[in-house]
Write a structure and sequence with these properties.
This protein is an alpha/beta fold. It has helices spanning 4-23, 26-36, 54-68, 83-113, 120-133, 135-152, 159-165, 167-183, 189-201, 253-256, and strands spanning 204-205, 210-211, 216-218, 224-225, 230-231, 236-238, 242-244, 264-265, 270-271, 276-278, 283-284, 289-290, 295-296, 305-306. The chain is globular and about 75 Å long.
């Protein structure tokens, strides 16, 4: 009588042999992929000069949160005794990360688009320093955002809760840093940063948008804010709000690049969930209230309330 243990061993050996046969096809598949890298109709970045690393970008965001909100996101305790050492170490690490990644992105554009020399290494160091010098100003603006959330949200038990757990504050933290990089003329990196925040929070803010102090994104999922959007101070928007561009004709991208395509939202405006506001000439006047699910492609005077009619429900 056959030993069941031997049967099991034979079956395992057969499975292992079959697995080896499958894996033997992998070199051929890899060669086909390598050969396809020469296809210019697809996109490949095979170069001696690296492009920005997504992992490094995530690390940059994490380190910025440590110095923008000291003591909240550090991996170790920060107290009055070690504050100087802790911040100094984080700033030094962040400077090295930033200067490296900025240099890579600037050099990448120079090589890919045949630009004249922009002294990318020097630019990487100078821009990294300029961004870090902006940290006190960014901290003040973010503090105003946190206070505005607290002032308008009865569910918020403390400023700590908002800093730790509100997706709108995470998205705005990343945006405030990325926007400064955008102002400093750094390509690609600011967009990678805000797209990371988008993937984490569901809030999509282009780093080119200009947003004033005390800005609140309540809940936040599905919010879209386009590149040329201009938002004043003390503005509150809710989930699902789109501040976008009108539909573009085919191949219009180049002609409209750099033009104002997204709306202007003046001070003290509230925009409720699901509202869509489109167009570069559209201005929502100061103090206006835009109701939920409203669709706007034209300007609204200051102090105006724009509401949808109550829908007629059908019960069967």
């Amino acid at each position: 009588m056959d030993d069941p243990k031997n049967q099991t061993t034979d079956a395992c050996k057969a499975d292992a042999a079959a697995c080896a046969q499958y894996k033997a096809r992998l070199p051929e598949i890899a060669e086909a992929i390598i050969a396809h890298c020469d296809d210019e109709s697809c996109y490949t970045h095979i170069d001696s000069e690296p492009i920005s690393s997504e992992g490094r970008v995530t690390e940059i965001i994490d380190k910025f949160r440590e110095i923008l909100f000291p003591g909240y996101f550090s991996s170790e305790k920060v107290d009055p005794v070690n504050l100087k050492y802790s911040i100094g170490r984080t700033v030094t690490h962040l400077y090295d990360l930033l200067s490296e990644q900025i240099t890579h992105t600037v050099r990448h554009d120079c090589f890919r688009y045949g630009l004249s020399c922009s002294h990318c290494e020097e630019q990487g160091h100078e821009v990294a320093l300029a961004l870090l010098e902006s940290v006190p100003d960014i901290r003040k603006v973010l503090a105003s955002d946190v206070r505005a959330v607290y002032d308008g949200d009865p569910a918020a038990k403390s400023h700590d809760e908002i800093i730790f757990s509100y997706p709108g504050i995470y998205a705005m933290t990343v945006f405030r840093v990325a926007h400064r990089l955008f102002e400093l003329g750094v390509p690609l990196l600011p967009r990678v940063m805000t797209e990371h925040a988008h993937s984490v929070t569901g809030i999509d803010i282009h780093p080119g948008a200009r947003i004033g102090q005390r800005f609140v994104i309540d809940h936040g999922t599905g919010v879209v804010i386009g590149e040329s959007t201009l938002i004043g101070e003390n503005v509150r928007i809710y989930q699902g709000v789109t501040l976008g561009a009108l539909s573009l004709p085919r191949d219009a991208g180049e002609a409209l690049r750099g033009k104002k395509r997204h709306p202007t939202i003046e001070d003290d405006v509230i925009i409720y969930s699901g509202a869509t506001i489109l167009g570069g000439d559209t201005v929502i006047g100061a103090g206006a209230v835009i109701g939920g699910n409203v669709w706007l492609t034209e300007s609204v005077p200051p102090g105006t309330r724009v509401l949808m009619e109550v829908p007629r429900l059908i019960y069967k």
